[in-house]
Automatic annotation (TrEMBL):
Any Pfam family matching the protein: PepSY_TM
Transmembrane region(s): 29-53, 158-179, 206-226, 398-419, 445-473
Domain PepSY: 77-132, 316-367
Superkingdom of this protein's organism: Bacteria
Protein name (record): PepSY domain-containing protein
Keywords recorded for this protein, A-Z: Membrane, Transmembrane, Transmembrane helix
Length: 484
């Protein structure tokens, strides 16, 4: 959002007013933040647009696998599962998602021996396998992995988080640079002069005014995306996601967290429950394995009814009886002490549910729903739903699309503005000159302190950049020339 109209003539620092020196310092911050952030923001905006329209793209790309003609009575869920397993006998079942509507297929997630994640589509009326989708090659899954971790794992996650936080620095410094320095004018300040034949005016106004009107939306995207990040997001979740102990009914808990179900770019459980420990299934009575009736004479106060086999059919029936909204999935037990997990990650966060079920007894070990969330998890979940374009339908998607397009416009116009003002054939990158000293440091120091406390990565990196700028770049003529 920087204005560069006053940048073409270098003014000796000794003749500059304190306000002008401060302006140039903020502009320099904005410039360097842009150098780092722009590549990441372009990636995030582009992949975000792709994933934003996942429902429509999935229906278009996999129509014949996802949609069926309702005929007769649906087959038992266990038979649908067996049909998928028969097609891939060496694969391990990870998750089952019942059909969300009469004209939709069931989806079975399998893990193959060569570490592929497959979604197998099954006709719920005929048990016919309609096809499969390799999630490692699915456009939307790839977009999500790039969006979250640049497809390079944890390090990529940290890079995305750092870039997003620096995006906030860009917004703050950009707003300051947008403020009229002299007499206020509507054109160029509130209305971009896109009709101007002066290319610099065109791009400057497009950048500044787009940034002004898009600031809140872009800030919203950044802040609602950060809870998924690896460093800040996990720390924030540990601090804010607390639930009453009675929700677990004093059941044994493992060291594995519920968030471990969110793998391979697939969000199975809501953010609010990611830090909760997974309960353990009872280790006694192994003769009551899945598909066989329980011999116990004690009726459990909650769970699958006594005498009913604990299998996929009964787990789905229990989920429906508990009010799970269509679109829920069943994650299968991992190991002898693993549990069935019924989870709903719907468009409306108030319909979320995460329920763990003992794989032997059928007892509900934990049942966490919207009403159990604290205020902070509720706010975060609402923000995530809007961020992903899910909460209020197509209108939500279009609003977030607009925000992504604003990001792209800001990035492209910022690059063009730099290209227009860069020194020609001088070996310099064209950064705004660094004033020898700045008097008005109270506000910047306060901003750095707040950012450092709220976002430690950006605070640490901001201090590092400032020290490099003032203690290194300014003292070596060769470096000072390049970075100016």
């Amino acid at each position: 959002m920087a204005s560069t109209s006053n940048s073409l003539v270098e003014v000796p620092s000794v003749l500059e007013s304190p306000t002008n020196r401060f302006y140039r310092t903020i502009w320099r911050w904005h410039f360097y933040a842009g150098l780092f952030v722009i590549p990441f923001m372009l990636i995030l905006a582009t992949t975000g647009i792709i994933y934003l329209f996942k429902p429509q793209l999935d229906a278009l790309m996999y129509h014949h696998q996802m949609f069926v003609q309702p005929t007769g009575v649906m087959q038992p869920y266990t038979q649908q599962l067996e049909a998928a397993q028969s097609a891939f006998p060496d694969a391990k079942v990870s998750k089952f998602a019942p059909n969300v509507a009469p004209n939709r297929s069931a989806e079975v997630t399998l893990m193959t021996s060569d570490e592929r994640t497959l979604t197998v589509f099954v006709n719920p009326y005929t048990d016919e396998v309609l096809g499969d989708r390799d999630e490692n090659k699915n456009l939307q899954s790839i977009a999500r992995k790039i969006h979250g971790e640049l497809m390079i794992g944890k390090f990529g996650d940290y890079l995305v988080e750092l870039a997003a936080c620096w995006g906030l620095v860009l917004l703050i410094t950009g707003l300051y640079l947008w403020l009229p320095r002299n007499r206020f004018k509507i054109f160029g300040t509130l209305i971009p002069r896109l009709w101007s034949k002066n290319k610099r005016v065109f791009w400057r106004d497009l950048h500044a005014v787009s940034g002004l009107y898009g600031t809140l939306l872009v800030a919203f995207l950044i802040l609602t995306g950060l809870p998924w990040s690896g460093f800040w997001g996990e720390t924030f979740a540990q601090v804010s996601s607390h639930f009453p102990a009675q929700l677990w009914d004093e059941v044994p808990q493992s060291k594995v967290l519920t968030g471990s179900l969110n793998q391979h770019g697939d969000h199975v459980v809501p953010w609010a429950v990611e830090q909760l420990p997974m309960p353990l299934s009872g280790t006694s009575g192994h003769e009551h394995h899945s598909g066989q009736s329980r011999a116990s004479s004690t009726a459990f106060p909650k769970g699958i009814p006594l005498g009913t086999p604990v299998n996929l059919d009964s787990v789905v029936a229990l989920a429906q009886a508990k009010g799970a909204f269509p679109g829920f999935s069943v994650s299968f037990p991992q190991g002898e002490t693993g549990v069935y997990t019924v989870s709903v990650f719907p468009d409306n966060p108030s319909q979320e549910m995460t329920m763990h079920i003992d794989q032997y007894s059928g007892k509900v070990l934990a049942d966490v729903q919207w009403q159990d969330y604290g205020l902070v998890p509720k706010v975060v979940e609402m923000g995530i739903a809007i961020h992903m374009g899910k909460y209020f339908g197509v209108g939500n998607q279009l609003l977030m699309l607009f925000a992504c397009l604003v990001v792209i416009v800001l990035c492209v116009s910022g690059i063009v503005m730099w290209w227009q003002r860069r020194p020609k054939q001088s070996g310099r990158i064209g950064a705004p000159a660094l004033p020898p000293y700045v008097q008005q440091w109270k506000v910047p120091i306060a901003i750095i302190a707040v950012l450092g406390i709220v976002f430690p990565l950006v605070g640490l990196s901001l201090v590092t950049v400032l020290l490099l700028d003032y203690l290194v770049l300014s003292r070596f003529p060769a470096l000072k020339r390049v970075f100016s």
